[in-house]
Write a structure and sequence with these properties.
By secondary structure, this protein is of the alpha/beta class. It has eight helices and seven strands.
Length: 240
């Protein structure tokens, strides 16, 4: 009960974009796939996995490893015009902030469930979120999904049409979906989604593995000494 009340009190904190003195080291956008291929049970695993990953001890340590904070933004995406904010920009200065975000994720009701996979539009939305976010040293988009783009323009077109200068786009593949098979999803992310300095791919072997994959991905993305210096376009060798 006390933790819930503490998290509720954090709702009054100012948004990151309005902060005056921040000097944040990273602006991180998490883009979560809720297209029609994600059923209700899979969505629950995905949402619960994200909430748990945000407060995993190693992730908390990575977020708080520097006095200069990470600015965090989360949205759900599916069709061309179906991007909905789960968490507006917030500066992560303590475990309480991560608990607050995790509570918001856990309580969030799914925005859409009937639209296709318009990843180019999702990336365009992420670019706009970064533009209105705080001026951090580095900018990263973390986009997860269980299928390839099947509506609207593709990710390379988004990179040409929107401002992705200096932005790293990492991918989290949810592998093994029956409707996609396991042969084309990883190459699609490798060839069309990964973008910018240090971009890398994490693989979840199904939705039950989403929490582990997201946890590892967040640790790697927010660790202060690793931002922007990792080899580009790699699949994590520890995914088996």
């Amino acid at each position: 009960m006390r933790r819930w009340l503490a998290a509720l009190a954090l709702a009054a904190l100012p948004q990151a974009g309005a902060a005056q003195d921040d000097g944040c080291r990273l602006a991180l956008v998490l883009a979560i796939d809720v297209s029609s291929s994600v059923d209700d049970g899979e969505y629950a695993l995905q949402k619960g996995g994200l909430a748990a990953a945000l407060i995993a001890p190693d992730v908390v340590r990575a977020f708080l490893a520097s006095p200069r904070p990470v600015a965090l933004n989360i949205f759900e995406w599916s069709g061309r015009y179906n991007q909905v904010s789960v968490q507006d920009w917030v500066l992560i200065r303590s475990r309480a902030h991560l608990l607050y975000v995790a509570e918001n994720v856990a309580r969030f009701e799914r925005s859409y469930n009937e639209f296709p996979t318009a990843m180019g539009y999702a990336l365009g939305h992420a670019a706009k979120e970064l533009e209105r976010g705080p001026p951090c040293d580095a900018k990263t988009v973390d986009i997860s999904g269980d299928g390839i783009n099947n509506e609207g323009f593709r990710p390379p077109n988004a990179y040409n049409a929107f401002n992705f200068a200096g932005v790293t786009v990492n991918g989290l593949v949810i592998n093994g979906a029956d409707h996609e098979g396991e042969t084309n999803l990883i190459p699609f992310y490798q060839n069309e989604v990964l973008h910018g300095p240090g971009a890398f791919l994490e693989v979840a072997q199904g939705f039950r593995d989403f929490e582990r994959a997201m946890r590892r991905k967040l640790e790697r993305e927010v660790a202060p000494g690793l931002i922007g210096v990792l080899p580009a376009r790699g699949v994590d060798p520890h995914n088996g």
